[in-house]
Amino acid sequence: MSAQGHRRVLTDGLVAAGLLTLSIVSAVVLSSHGDAPRSADAFGFGLVVLACAPLAVRRRFPVPVCVVTSLAVAVYLLLGYPYTAIMAAVSIAVYTVCRRVVTIPALVASAVVFALLVAHIFVNPAALPGDHRNLAAAHHGRSRQGTRRGGPTSA
């Protein structure tokens, strides 16, 4: 492997490690605030590792890395874990596919990833701010009537 190849491997490893660290720290901090429907736990941290670690080999295996990263992030969001830096993992994976794969398959992969990530909006009540939460709340059988700005209305 050339010096440039070693540099790319090192760079990708550092990106993966840095994003993993940032995602875990942000999950811990955001979970302590209690805004997310579900606080980060061992399974959530496992999904963070599953989403970020493959980025270390993203240039060598762009499509498998994109699939694993996207599925891990989609499951993470569908289960209601807090929004963290994990979202950047998908961006990096999709960017790599678009740079390394021919146009049509890259476009299809990007569309599938987008659909996976949008799905969480319909099942995660924290996904949409304000009155738009009615969509997710209706899915969960809850009503936001009688509330204003997230709290009970005063009589």
Global Rg: 18 Å
Strand order of the largest sheet: 1-2
> Which sequence of SSEs, written as H and E, runs from N to C?
HHHHHHEE
Number of strands: 2
Question: What is the approximate shape?
Answer: flat
Q: Helix tally?
A: 6
Largest β sheet strand count, sense and barrel closure: 2 strands, antiparallel
Terminal Cα separation, in Å? Answer: 72 Å
Task: Give the low-pLDDT segments.
Answer: 131-136
Q: Overall mean pLDDT score?
A: 81
Q: How much of the polypeptide forms β-strand, as a percent range?
A: under 5%
Estimated helix fraction: 55-70%
Secondary-structure class: mainly alpha
Question: How is the topology of this model organized?
Answer:
Blueprint (H helix, E strand, L loop, with lengths): L2 H31 L8 H11 L9 H17 L7 H15 L2 H17 L13 H7 L7 E2 L2 E2 L3
Helix pairs in contact: 1-2, 2-3, 3-4, 3-5, 4-5
